[in-house]
Design brief:
By secondary structure, this protein is mainly β. The protein folds into two domains: 122 residues, Immunoglobulins (Immunoglobulin-like, Sandwich); 307 residues, 6 Propeller (Neuraminidase), CATH 2.120.10. Helices cover 4% and strands 43% of the residues. Strands 1-3-6-5-4-7-8 form a seven-stranded antiparallel beta sheet, covered by helices on one side. Strands 11-15-14-13-12 form a five-stranded antiparallel beta sheet, with no helix packed on it. A hairpin with a 5-residue loop joins strand 16 and strand 17. The radius of gyration is 23 Å and the shape is globular. The protein starts with 5 loop residues before the first helix and ends with a strand. The N terminus is likely disordered.
Length: 440
């Protein structure tokens, strides 16, 4: 059962206001004419804010007058911290509360560099540090059914969200398992489908951007040695189509090194890790991990100094150092989890137990938060190999928002982390939703 919390309500209540504010994005002439432009000859006023308390990413509406509708001329600060301005209709601003804003005044500045007008809300904003799980998008009908539905985020639906990644602008790209590549825009207002699977790309498994974010690598689990192994989509095509890159490896995991762009991928039938030579257009086998015919993936730390090799079906994680002199991943060591031994146990190193670990995400301190699929939780792994349960109820699947260890997931598969806001996004597959974990 879904629980309602005050924090969650901060996400739910402004939906109608959000639709009103986004009217400026519509193409209807009458709606555009209803927008109120900024008048430099008149004062800028703020009457009230709602809500007046909340945590990171709380959706705030600032009511007043003479804001204008050009968001490039609008700046909002909460306790001196810049807030993201999503939209304005002239009399109301829609903003997102920034991470770690603290408690203080809400200041609105309108106008360019020359003679801007500044005003402060009559009541300040109280920042609440409240780690919690909430829901960003997705829902099912009364029979538990859903579909792939694009559109405003409150109406969008998902079938089986699987793997997530950010682009440079913080748009979220996600794989719908065996179905499609989809995108949630950076403002978290719209969901679109980039392309549907087919024509050789039938089972995409992982996504990884190159360092300049103009090329996306998409691994494809094609089951044999003759099909498509890795495809690429490019910014030039708005990531709306793919082209083949690598054939003839049974691949279900790949990643680009975040600084050099070196691309590595696996062959699950042999347990091999390959490096792709971008000049010669050939692959070179580097090593084998010792487990064959099982899914595993490669995930680089943001520093690029090492990568974790997550052996999904054998329930453990390896660590491989990246050698910058050779440009290669080195033979890995067994880092955490019991090889071929599933379960749920917090602990250190190989004493810990997972049940189908999948995608993970790194925070600012190289802690790794990995989806532990059939334990229905998110686990935290420190750089020293200490494993703990971060969010969810071990072994108890379901759907509920709330405090970290009260919330429930149903086969969480994908996770990414936004350092700017201290927020995780989780592909909660069998709940057909994208969940949010606020760490503050």
């Amino acid at each position: 059962m879904k629980t309602n919390t005050a924090y969650e309500m901060h996400w739910a209540w402004p939906c109608a206001a959000l639709i009103m504010l986004l009217v400026c994005a519509c193409s209807d002439k009458g709606e555009i004419e209803n927008r109120i432009p900024y008048d430099p000859a008149k004062p800028v006023e703020v009457n009230r804010i709602a809500p007046d308390s909340g945590g990171v990413n709380t959706q705030m509406i600032i009511y007043g007058s003479n804001f204008g509708y050009d968001t490039s001329l609008i700046r909002v600060y909460i306790n001196g911290h810049p807030a993201r301005v999503i939209g304005s209709n002239g009399n109301a601003l829609y903003v997102l509360v920034p991470s770690k804003a603290g408690t203080g005044d809400v200041k609105v500045i309108i106008g360019g560099d020359a003679a801007p007008k500044e005003t402060v809300a009559p009541k300040g904003f109280k920042y609440i540090y409240l780690p919690s799980v909430s829901t960003l998008a997705g829902f099912t009908d009364k029979d538990g059914k859903t579909a792939i539905v694009d559109g405003p985020i409150a109406k969008a639906q998902f079938e089986e969200p699987y793997w997530l990644t950010f682009d440079k602008e913080k748009n979220i790209y996600l794989i719908e398992e065996s179905r499609a590549l989809r995108m949630i825009d950076a403002a978290k207002t719209q969901v679109t489908t980039k392309f549907r699977n087919g024509n050789g790309l039938g089972r995409p498994r992982t996504l990884s951007f190159n360092p300049t974010f103009d090329t996306m690598y998409i691994t494809n689990d094609q089951w044999d040695w003759t099909g498509l192994s890795t495809a690429v989509a490019t910014k030039a095509d708005n990531f709306s189509r793919w082209t083949s890159l690598i054939y003839s490896q049974t691949t279900n995991g790949g990643a680009a090194q975040p600084q050099t762009g070196d691309y590595f991928f696996n062959a699950y039938s042999t347990g091999a890790i390959f490096k792709w030579d971008r000049v010669a257009k050939v692959s070179k086998e580097l090593f084998r991990i010792g487990d064959v015919n099982w899914e595993f993936n490669i995930q680089f730390a943001p520093s690029g100094e090492f990568a974790y090799i997550v052996v999904v079906n054998q329930h453990y994680i390896l660590k491989s150092r990246y050698n910058r002199e050779t440009g290669q991943l080195e033979t890995p060591v067994h880092f955490v989890g019991g090889r071929r031994s599933s379960g749920h146990m917090d602990g250190v190193g190989t004493d810990a137990r997972f049940n189908t670990p999948h995608q993970g995400a790194f925070d600012e301190n190289d802690n790794f938060y990995v989806c532990d699929v059939f334990n229905h939780v998110i686990r935290k792994i420190t750089p020293e190999g200490v494993v703990s349960t971060f969010a969810g109820r071990p072994g108890k699947y379901g759907y509920s928002d709330g405090a970290l260890r009260d919330a429930q997931f149903d086969r969480p598969m994908g996770i990414i982390y936004d350092r700017e806001t201290g927020t995780f996004y989780v592909a909660d597959q069998k709940n057909r939703r994208i969940r949010i974990i606020s760490t503050e």
